[in-house]
Amino acid sequence: MSAPVLLLDGASLWFRSFFGVPTSITAPDGRPVNAVRGFLDTVATLVGAHRPDRLVVCRDLDWRVARVPSYKAHRVAAAGPDGDVEQVPDELTAQVPMILDLLAAFGIATAGAAGFEADDVLGTLAAAERRDPVIVVSGDLDAQTSGRLDDVIAGRLDIGVDELVFDMGGLEFIDSSGLRSLVLARGDGDRRVVLRSPSASVVRLLDITGLLDVFTIEH
Description:
The chain has two domains: about 130 residues, 5'-nuclease (Rossmann fold, 3-Layer(aba) Sandwich); about 80 residues, STAS domain (Transcription Regulator spoIIAA, 2-Layer Sandwich), CATH 3.30.750.24. It is α/β, with parallel strands linked by helices. The protein is built from nine helices and eleven strands. The chain is globular and about 60 Å long. The longest helix is centred in the N-terminal third of the chain and has 17 residues. About 10% of the residues have low confidence. Strands 5-2-1-6 form a four-stranded parallel beta sheet, sandwiched between helices. It has a three-stranded parallel beta sheet with strand order 8-10-11, with no helix packed on it. Strands 3-4 form a two-stranded antiparallel ribbon. Helix 7 runs parallel beside helix 8. Strand 10, helix 9 and strand 11 form a beta-alpha-beta unit.
């Protein structure tokens, strides 16, 4: 099998890194760099595990400011389904330019499109790939992201595959829409769908919904 294309949801990863790495991690001048450290460690782990031929970090550009102009760009994260706006900590905002500078220094490509979210870019790049396997790393599989996953699956099926492997290691949340996408990926049941490294909570959800035996689970 050829080396994969690795597509990362940048904002999801550095947001998770900010809250997962202690704020005591600072630069010599005292600036917090916990998100920088966690993000780079995550990228290094993913590259080591998957050995991609191509790597792209997908990011949001200006969609939040365009949609909610009354908010400052450094404060707005995302509007939830109930209309609430999630606030980005100032300590994280200050680290994002450092992360982007380091990605540029390492020669790692970034991709974004004005007016679109990172997961739109992820879905577009994944669905357009026709040569190599695609690995998409994001934090959630829900109503907002499952449609893009459906597009990715359709793109892989167009080139004729009888097995789909989903790396679930970084997945923190999955809802009924996400489960539906995984079930539909099986087609009429003649396609093998592998769920690799699912969390205990995801396995529990599959068990509760009677879907645990539908997929091949690899730990």
